[in-house]
Amino acid sequence: MFPYRRLAHPLFLFAVLLVTALVLWPALSGGFIFDDYPIFAENPIVHIHNWHWESWLSLWRWSHANIQRPLAMISYAVNYAFGARTWGFKATNLAIHLLNTVLVFLLTRRVLSTAWVLSDGTKSETGSTDYWALGVTAAWALHPLHVSTVMYVVQRMELMGFTFVLLALLAYWQARQRQMRGESGWPWLLLCGCLTGIGYCAKETAALIPGYALLLELAVLRFAAIRPATARFWRITYIVGCIAAVIVFVVYVLPQTSAAYYVARDYTAWQRELTQLRALAMYLGWSLLPLPGWLHFYYDNYPASLSLFEPVSTLFSGILVLGLLIVAAILRHRRPLLALGIGWFFMAHLITSSPIPLELVFEHRNYPALLGVLLALADIVWMAKRRMKSIFPVIVAVIFIANLAYLTVIRAATWGNPLRLAITLAQNNPGSPRAALDLARCYVAASGDRPDSPLYSLGIQELEHAAQLPSSSILPEDALLIQAANHPGLDSTPWWASLDRKLQTRPLGPETYLALYGLLHAKLESSPSIDALQLKRSFEIAIARNPTRISLHAQYAELAYHALNDVPLAVEQWRQTVILKNGSPEYAESVATYLLNSRRPQEALAVITEAQALQPSLQHDETMAALYTKASDIIARMHIKPEI
């Protein structure tokens, strides 16, 4: 029996990994979707095809400054460096998910055995907890909620972030176990800290590692240590940590609830918090009953709660959330695993459900949170089995896991076909502008961009449908106008009118700025017949509503120079960017260098002059002086009048 006992658990874990890979495998043939395109698929700085250190250092600097998740961005570049296509990107995500499955098992087996010893006061049955841990791991790995997280390539950020969360918690657990035996745990705690810092470079949710560790202490570890001084140290440390967390909330989070931060949203910070009550209840529903028709992927039309009674489901959801928290507090000593599972779920949503002005709902936010739900369910099944003295609860749990796998097979098959996925998402959520826009792009791509194709007509119809939806941005108009520029038979007049109307009346969110940049890029690169005067008016409307956005002024300057041949306008817009940057030397130098390299000395001279006016010390800066001299010399040789 010894060899069997030694090999049984690894074999069962391997079986879980194999089944997980098999059920998700059909989805690998799918395509990129939504934010995959701007983040890496259409981002040339990520498309590194060599191993020269300067390219990678440049990517690190850019991603740290813009995306703030450099580790994830570098992983995309590694895919490109190895020549990976869409399948390779998704296969990498699947590999990370399988790694996380192993880590989930390693953490769960430790937590379960300790929690059930505490709650039941005996070790008589905990020798079999590895099988329970395998059950929790299988349910987590095979859950259909994870299809969109794993196969939506940009969510590698979520996958990698959770990898380091699990690694850090395993290191923390090892440190605490050593301290309970009277041994030194500091090397493992140092490793935990390092893993936390590395994980933060994949996604900011790694900052929740101390919160998860606190939950482990409250529920199962209970600040225990052989040395009383060590136990006292941990209590004091977490008290100080909680105070620090409150200070961070007051100093960093609360200021982001102001109207200035929510200018791009059509809801307030208070309405967002109310909506999160409904979202959390909905996430619990998805975790327990993940029916395909309930998982839409796109939730851009999810309505915000206006008050506790609008809709009234906000109140009921709030009661559910409060009730679960009370249950966790009451049962922390009697049922530590149940309390830990409830606390884990809410801890995982702590950042994304805070007043920070994020979008309301996303499926991938449940990737770490689902583990908490399953831990709580495992404890309920464990209690039912002991009290009923029957294997029936275990049979029900096995059937539940099998159903999860079946639903994942269905969803993975849908995600494996881009057109089928787009049709399904649009049918399941007909009010989603993003779903309609995605379907339109699939139709146009399938038509070969030929206006005589029936699929092309369907694509235009879907774009017009998306443009008319109440929560729609200007992205549909952006796509329609580019199509009109490429195919002169289409009348663009109503689409320009719709775009300007939205710019005047709707919040200017990220999609708005993305669409304006898309039109500018198309005008200058691929679709020169786009009406430059119409685009000029659109930029004027956007700038009038948000005059402090530097990128708008910079893009307007590019439009003025390249499409309108209006150098004075370009000069004025570049000046505005320098003013908004308060004459930053680094910014002025980079812009002036770019303009000089583009043989645009008038604009470069204006940038330098404005920066020197705002920062008089720059008049003695050697670099700025050299740029000023170079711009003046070029102007003199070109026999043009400087626009300063």
The gist of it:
With 644 residues, the protein is mostly helical. It contains 28 helices and no strands. The chain has two domains: 2-30 and 85-413, no CATH class; 547-644, Serine Threonine Protein Phosphatase 5, Tetratricopeptide repeat, CATH 1.25.40.
Describe the biggest sheet?
Answer: none
**How many strand elements?**
0
User: What percent of residues are in strands?
Assistant: under 5%
Helix content: over 70%
What's the pLDDT, averaged over the residues?
Answer: 90
Number of helices: 28
**SSE string, helices as H and strands as E:** HHHHHHHHHHHHHHHHHHHHHHHHHHHH
Radius of gyration: 28 Å
How far apart, in Å, are the first and last alpha carbons?
88 Å
The secondary structure category is: mainly alpha
Low-confidence stretches are none
**Structural domain count:** 2
Instruction: Name the overall outline.
Output: globular
Describe the structure.
This protein is mainly alpha-helical and 644 residues long. It has 2 domains: 2-30 and 85-413, no CATH class; 547-644, Alpha Horseshoe (Serine Threonine Protein Phosphatase 5, Tetratricopeptide repeat), CATH 1.25.40. Helices cover 71% and strands 0% of the residues. The protein has 28 helices and no strands. Helix 8 runs antiparallel to helix 9 and helix 8 (156-180) crosses helix 10. It is globular, with a radius of gyration of 28 Å. The mean pLDDT is 90.
